[in-house]
């Protein structure tokens, strides 16, 4: 038990069953106080004014006003931490990704069947996400004009491969980084903590907005210049060799650092196979996944970048990576793409080029 004040939560959902289930799950944690519930955004608006909650859990699909429309109003008029409650469907994934871009801190993907049983299994995750949301400083989204980079052909045709890990806040952070990369960028392998279906929708969404080609990784995909590969939500992504070239390798083995896909798994494969020709960036996220893998990459000669505290929605993963000695350079989010491109020319003193 800590001496800090509990995170005060308003639960917004049109389903009375869901309101009861979520309230019960959250109330089991002494560090969370459920202030009230609301069946729709109109009631929620009045209860926000009256109760001033620290965090809102918000259903995506509601009558009268959908959750995304209400979220836009919240982020415009009174920016505050919001955790979206989404369905594990393709449509739910698209809507949730839009909500995360608008400014939602995180989301919980609820099933469409056996809701009570599955939510009980998700209880620790739900409580952790709500408490982490309560620690964030949410700001109204600022429209960013994408950078336009031209990478020199000498750099573009080099041997560098980029590896990126992210979690909470990563949807917006990865968008900022990847829209800053040129069409002829070195190849990029990405692990973002996200469920199945969501990673495919996320890759499709980024592909429409970036100069690079972005796709969900498939087992055996050749690792090619101008292409970024996102780990599917159900599998670890690693880099491997096949027939003398680098390829994407997927496996559904045990979780690592509590996750599948795991950033540590990706980074450790890079340390073993790519060595000094690797560049790594670790972005916003709670927990410590990726910290040990980044340290291994740095020890293997890679150049490593951590998102700084001021621009991280959750300064967890980058902080731990920095504390264990994995991070060589800390950068604000808006400068990470520049740092990656600069590092693509970097060769550590005294290190041999990887075969």
Inertia-based shape: elongated
Fraction in helix = 25-40%
Radius of gyration: 20 Å
Q: CATH homologous superfamily of the largest domain - what is it?
A: Methylesterase CheB, C-terminal domain
Class by alpha and beta content: alpha/beta
Mean pLDDT: 89
Domain module tally:
2
Note the beta-strand portion. Answer: 15-25%
The CA-CA distance between the termini, in Å, is 52 Å
**Mind summarizing the main beta sheet?**
7 strands, parallel
Order of helices and strands: EHEHEHEHEHHEHEHEEEEHEHEHEH
CATH C-level name of the largest domain: Alpha Beta
If you consult CATH, what is the topology of the largest domain?
Answer: Rossmann fold
Spatial order of the strands forming the largest sheet:
8-9-7-6-12-13-14
Contiguous low-pLDDT stretches (5 residues minimum) are 150-157, 346-355
What labels would you give this structure?
five-stranded parallel beta sheet; seven-stranded parallel beta sheet; 12 helices; 2 domains; 355 residues; alpha/beta
Q: Summary?
A:
This protein is an alpha/beta fold and 355 residues long. It has helices spanning 16-27, 41-51, 67-77, 90-102, 115-134, 153-156, 170-179, 198-209, 263-273, 291-299, 317-323, 336-343, and strands at residues 7-12, 32-38, 55-59, 82-87, 106-110, 161-166, 188-192, 213-216, 227-230, 236-242, 245-251, 278-282, 303-307, 329-331.
Topology:
Elements: E1 7-12, H1 16-27, E2 32-38, H2 41-51, E3 55-59, H3 67-77, E4 82-87, H4 90-102, E5 106-110, H5 115-134, H6 153-156, E6 161-166, H7 170-179, E7 188-192, H8 198-209, E8 213-216, E9 227-230, E10 236-242, E11 245-251, H9 263-273, E12 278-282, H10 291-299, E13 303-307, H11 317-323, E14 329-331, H12 336-343
Parallel strand pairs: 1-2, 1-3, 3-4, 4-5, 6-7, 6-12, 7-9, 8-9, 12-13, 13-14
Antiparallel strand pairs: 10-11
